[in-house]
Amino acid sequence: MSQTNTAERPELLVVAPLMPFLMEALCREYTIHDRIHVSDPAAFGGVAPRIRGVVANGEAKVPRELIAQLPALEVISVFGVGYDGVDVAAAHERGVPVTNTPEVLNDDVADLAIGLMIAVARRIPQADRFVRANEWPNGPIALSRKVTGGRLGVVGMGRIGQAIAHRAAAFNMEIAYTARSPRPNLNYTYYPDAASLAAVVDFLIVITPGGAGTRGMIDARVLKALGPDGYLINVARGSVVDQPALIDALRNGVIAGAGLDVFVNEPNVPEELRAMLNVVLTPHIGSGTKQTREAMGQLTFDNLRAHFSGKPLLTPVDA
Length: 319
Ligand code: 8YV
Known about the structure:
7-stranded parallel β-sheet; Rossmann fold; alpha/beta; single chain; binds 2-keto-D-gluconic acid
């Protein structure tokens, strides 16, 4: 009986906290092992050989060592567009496909990028605090920085980068970008690297994938190029920015300000950043609307269902 059950209900390892809606849907179709700590062999040893799928999110780690511990692994489904925590090469070596949730979150992440740009330039959180503290009767608040017509640099011109550029065009912004290679189909100016791009823009929005290839890409040199009137917005991964260099730059007026949705060691944000007045900080909410998280959950689920019913995956990550 239990054998039939096992065969009917694939066993999945969930390595990240998932939305209740997705967790409940998974529990109806699969046997779920929830957040078993990968480094605790005692807890893990018994179930590891039966795990056929792993469910992760954008921040979770699925390293080579974990994949090696799962001999029956068939699929890894990531709730998120970013999969920098997953060792895709190790999975593909084993013939294990990895899926993610592209497209469905483009609008939300692009909206937040623009929102942070406006919030930091127009000092919306500071203005809100000013009114709440009843400082208004004592005189007007300091003037802020105009956004419309400004020069925008986008680091990473993938799907979300293009959604950001599309929105920025409505603000009459002059748009330039850097990416691994130019995109001839786009009518924006290409720069070969982040430093040369930063030197010619007022706002630099970072939306490039995380991982080894982009680690520390926005370093002291890029920040210096952005300059004392420039603003940095990061909606990508904390790892893309050299965080200590950013803190130095903000503290010393090397750049004007920053809007940050992602950090190096989330959910921990350095005290120095939290105390600064020229930053707007949000807790990794780029895709965090009910509508989008539900769409992401659905896609995460549908990829697993496609796999376990022998159908083609909806959104596999390229080899
Ligand atoms: C989410 C993300 O943070 O899609 C990504 O890469 O970073 C996010 O949308 C995440 O996966 C939800 O926990």
